[in-house]
Amino acid sequence: MAERGRARGRRGGGRAQSSSPRRPQRARREDRRSRLRRGLTATRASGAAKVLGMSTTRRAAVVAIVVCALAFTIAVPLRTYLSQRADVAAEEARQAELEQQVAELEARKAELSDPAQVEAEARRRLRYVMPGETPYMVQLPEDKQSEQRPEGDESAPAQGLAWYEMLWDSVTKGE
């Protein structure tokens, strides 16, 4: 045991620690602790570099490549998910519209189940009359104007012809 005590004494240099008048003893302890921490951190970092066998720049490049690969791996399924979600929303809107149309058609079917309603529709849309009734057709002046078209007027361009047909007609009539 005595030898152990001596070894401790030798480590310290065989002298008592003297406090310098410039730095308090507490500051020296904190300074020693921070140096130890820095040394451990540097040792850990250099140990990681030794294990991987790469410099800091190479490790950063590998990390960047891994992050990019993960981003691309996630991007395609995410895009597919978002597009399918939009498709589902569009189909749900279409389904709601079709359900509304079905409800309207069922209401119309219920209306037409009455024979009086069917008769009224036949009179209005098909202009049917019952036997013994006299039908009257009233034509208004604006109806006649739409029916009359000037046929003898050649200066007006013919409706329904393509541009090249009108061009050919103008060339052949000019002779």
Description of the molecule:
- Residues 86-115 form a coiled coil.
- This is Septum formation initiator family protein.
- Residues 1-42, 136-161 are annotated as: Disordered.
- InterPro entries: FtsL/DivIC.
- The chain crosses the membrane at residues 60-78.
- The protein has 175 residues and is mainly alpha-helical.
- Helix content is 71%, strand content 0%.
- The longest helix is centred in the middle third of the chain and has 57 residues, at 56-112.
- The protein is elongated.
- Mean pLDDT is 77; it is low at 7-14.
Notable characteristics:
175 residues; mainly alpha; 6 helices; elongated
The gross shape turns out to be elongated
Distance between the termini: 137 Å
pLDDT averaged residue by residue = 77
Question: How many DSSP H or I helices?
Answer: 6
Rg:
50 Å
* Proportion of strand residues: under 5%
Say how many strands there are.
Answer: 0
Alpha-beta content class: mainly alpha
Biggest sheet details? none
Poorly predicted residue ranges: 7-14
Which bin fits the share of residues in helices?
Answer: over 70%
Order of helices and strands: HHHHHH
